[in-house]
Every structure is written in structure tokens, then in C-alpha cells.
Specification:
The chain is an alpha+beta fold. The protein is built from 10 helices and 8 strands. It binds adenosine-5'-diphosphate and magnesium ion. Pfam families: HipA_2.
Length: about 300
């Protein structure tokens, strides 16, 4: 069972992602990144966080501990921004916390230039993302972190943020569990991920029994799509179990190499530059994520 803790001190919002999680200290002396039930991403994002994160852990991938955080907005009284205050007051009660990795760095394209990842480890992560239809582990927004970074031990990859996985739960009756997945922009595509080896190793581990144990961790209050939480849990188990059995059909294999990605990036930059006035051509393009990343509809139906 996920541990229950009470948030005792609010430290800061994290604005780099979209959901504005908060860093808090809790009554067990731990520090956690809290994903709020009142965020625009909604409770389904938290359901995906629990199911995919605990599945990752069960499969031996590095993923920080999850806890249920009881949050009283009063502790964040000093937060100056109204939109963050609104988020807090919409989230009184139970929220999801992830153990904070102190000093961790985001795995960015810059970090990737020198960081080595073993093809089997890359394969396991890509496999998990393909199984759980995670659309949010791309080159420009990897939701991977490197930790520790202080030289006490070799830095390793850690998974975070599975809120955008399980895209099928946005359209329960419309998504084929055998649907292939578009992984051209996966953050680890350039490491020659050995997804076949990962499939042989991991698929037999994803049993109905394991899936049942994992979905049991999701609080009832977040499971509102069906007549009862029990029915919702069965729907997740049935879908994921059908999908794991169909792994041959969705296994991603044709990853573009570094050169192909670099050429694509150059074409994209050139496209973005078109139509800009001369002075603006010198300004770095900070927002231009590849168009394919923004069009999620390709992952549905
Ligand atoms: N467990 C953690 N330890 C340290 N930093 C974290 C942790 N989780 C998230 N972060 C930082 O906060 C940012 C936003 O968190 P994320 O879970 O990706 O939320 P969002 O849903 O907003 O994208 C991450 O990119 C990372 O920099
Ligand atoms: Mg994120």
C-alpha cells in the first residue's frame, strides 16, 4: 500500500512542467513533489502516475517512491501567485506525492550528448512507454532525471511523470489494445533501445495478478469513469493485460538514428525560421517542439 503522509511545510512550486506540482515537507520528515488533484490534467493524470509508476517499479526500473499526501492549503499561505493558490484550494485532501530527488537534473538533449544509456535499459523504458501508451517521454520533454549528481555514486536515469500515459482511459471504448505506437521522438530512441530483449524479459512479468495489485493502490476517489471503482480497476487490468499479450503488434522497432534526428531537427528549425523578420532569425527557438509531439490525436483510436 502507498504510505500516507501529512504535508507540514510548503516549499516551492515547480514550474518547468505543465501541472505546477509543489515541493513539500511531510510529517515523516520526507520531502515530496506533490501532484495536485485540482490541476488541469485532472485525477486521471494521478491514476496514470500510480499505475505506470508502480508498474515501472515492479519491473525493476528506477522510480522514486510514491505516497498519498494529505494537503491543507493553509500551509501554502505564503504562495504569492493567484493561479497557484487556486490550484491549492481546489486540492485540499489527498494528493499524490513522489519522493524528491535532491539535486537531480532533467535529462535534456544537452545531457544526452554525453550521457551513456545501455541499450537494454533504454529498451526496457521504451517498452514500458509503449505498453502504457505514454506520449510524454520525448526528446524535448523526457520526464527522465539523472541522479545522484554530487559524485557520491554514478548518476543513473530515473523515471518521473507518467501523468500523460494510459491515453486509452480518455476514450474507453475506442482504443484497440494492439495499436502500434509512434515512438519517433522518444527521448531514448538514439540509444538503439533493445525492445525485443525487453519484451522477452518483461512481458511475462505483467500478469493479471500483478496488474490487480497495482490498480488496488489507486484511491477510490480517483476512479470515477465507471459505476464503481471496482469496475474501473477491472477495466484497467483487462486493457493492459490484453495489450501486453499483443506486444508483437505494438513493439516499436524502427528508431531513427542520431543523424536522422539531427537532420529532422535542422529541417524543423529552418521551417520555424521561415517568415521571421531578419532580426528574429538570431533569437534561439525555445518553444519549437516538433509538431508531431503536439499532435496527440495520432496516438488515439
Ligand atoms: N521526484 C523529483 N525529484 C526532483 N525533481 C523533480 C521530481 N519530480 C519532478 N521534478 C522536477 O519538476 C519538473 C516537473 O515535474 P513533472 O512531474 O514532470 O510535472 P509536470 O506534470 O508539470 O510535467 C520536472 O521536470 C523536474 O525538473
Ligand atoms: Mg513533466
Amino acid at each position: 500500500m502507498l504510505k500516507n503522509v501529512i504535508a507540514t511545510r510548503y516549499i516551492t512550486p515547480l514550474r518547468s512542467g505543465g501541472s505546477v506540482p509543489g515541493v513539500v515537507e511531510a510529517d515523516d520528515l520526507g520531502t515530496y513533489v506533490v501532484k495536485f488533484t485540482g490541476s488541469a490534467q485532472g485525477r486521471k493524470a494521478l491514476v496514470a502516475e500510480v499505475i505506470v509508476g508502480e508498474l515501472a517499479r515492479a519491473l525493476g526500473l528506477r522510480f522514486p517512491e510514491l505516497v498519498l499526501v494529505h494537503f491543507d492549503p493553509v500551509i501554502a499561505d505564503g504562495e504569492p501567485h493567484q493561479e497557484v493558490r487556486d490550484l491549492h484550494s481546489a486540492s485540499a485532501g489527498v494528493n499524490l506525492g513522489m519522493d524528491y530527488l535532491p539535486g537531480a537534473r532533467d535529462f535534456t538533449p544537452e545531457v544526452a550528448k554525453t550521457f551513456r544509456v545501455d541499450p537494454l535499459e533504454a529498451g526496457r523504458i521504451v517498452w514500458l512507454d509503449a505498453l502504457t501508451a505514454n506520449v510524454d517521454r520525448t526528446v524535448h520533454n523526457s520526464n527522465l532525471m539523472i541522479w545522484p549528481t554530487l559524485g557520491v555514486a554514478p548518476p543513473r536515469l530515473w523515471l518521473i511523470d507518467h501523468g500523460a500515459a494510459l491515453v486509452f482511459h480518455h476514450r474507453w471504448d475506442g482504443t484497440d489494445p494492439a495499436k502500434a505506437y509512434d515512438f519517433r521522438h522518444h527521448a531514448l530512441g538514439q540509444y538503439a533501445p533493445d525492445v525485443r530483449a525487453a519484451d522477452a524479459e518483461l512481458a511475462p512479468k505483467v500478469t493479471e495478478e500483478l496488474l490487480r495489485e497495482i490498480v488496488a493502490e489507486v484511491p477510490d476517489a480517483w476512479l470515477t469513469d465507471f459505476a464503481s471503482p471496482a469496475e474501473a480497476r477491472e477495466a484497467y487490468v483487462a486493457y493492459l493485460h490484453a495489450r501486453v499479450r499483443a506486444s508483437r503488434q505494438w513493439l516499436p522497432t524502427d528508431f531513427p538514428g542520431r543523424e536522422e534526428l539531427a537532420a529532422e531537427e535542422a529541417r524543423r528549425t529552418a521551417r520555424n525560421q521561415q517568415g521571421r523578420p531578419a532580426w528574429l532569425k538570431q533569437v534561439p527557438d525555445l518553444h519549437g517542439k516538433p509538431a508531431a509531439e503536439q499532435d496527440w490525436s495520432v496516438h488515439l483510436g
